[in-house]
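Below is how a single chain appears once it has passed through the pipeline. First comes the sequence as given, then the structure the pipeline wrote out for it. We keep one example in the README because the format questions we get most often are answered faster by looking than by reading.
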Amino acid sequence: MLMKKRIALLLLLSAGSFLLAITDESSSLREGMTSGDPGIRSISAMAFGADGILFIGDSKNATVYAVDTKDNAKVEKATALEVKKFDQKVAAALGTEVTNVTITEIAVNPVSKKVYCAIQMADGTPALLRVEGDKLTAVDLKNVEFSYIALENAPAEDAKDQRGRSLRPASIADLGFYDGKVMVSGLSNKEFSSTFRMIPYPFNNKQDWVSLEMYHAAHKKYETFSPIRTFTVGDVNGKKSLIASYTCTPLVVFPLEDLKPGTHVKGRTVAEMGSGNSPLDMITMTKGSESYLLMANSSRPVFKVKYSHINAFQGTITTPVEESFAT
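Resulting structure:
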């Protein structure tokens, strides 16, 4: 089943992908890659680096893959997308019915301007589609050039929370690429399990991580267990900062300079977008002299927040929101 909010997100990301920054094109980007079947079991998050390199976060394997899409012909202007009956087009491209497909993630190749959609089939099998105009093409994930890194201290496959739900799917909640590093939000098996990882690319077995804490006004408490559901990097009061959102929907700022490997970091909650909602994705957009944070949601319209308003709020929210679903 295709969620309407994912259609809105497709429109949002067609204008600008969640690519935080890219390095110069170089053969070193493919250092350590091998050819074959990487054994991807799920596509929980995706982001592009440079020169058509696609990073795939596989929460079932608790692994991040770098895949060479071979899609690196530079295009200045993106082809217009026709989103009507998109779920039917996705199902037709995969030779199945609409009820058998769920779009789990979307990313835009900044080089070719093509949209990539990750699909989960009804039996749990992942699939990847390349979208160009009204043409949808299945991407072969069984025979690619790739490299990978397994996450340290990921939740075990049989680990469960207090409600008996599996923790493994949250080992990778979101993924981005910034300043030569793959950034991964999710859970670890540590006491303070909300974790943010910074993994240099090309992969060299090094991965830095921090544990996170924030005040959740809708839940009326500080939390160290909830993973960041979506994030981006932006300028807040002159500092490069991680801007993150969680389920039920606090907006939290972490200056990047505070994310020192092996530390526990408390974020600054700058807004509460309301409970009963989960953020899907966010980007930064500049229009004229004003920069905006745009965030797609499961149960709310797309939020548009001026960075100037975030900058103007110097404090942090530490008091509960008493009314259900209030902002």
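Residues 1-8, 10-18, 21-25 have pLDDT under 50 and may be disordered.

See the next section for the split statistics.
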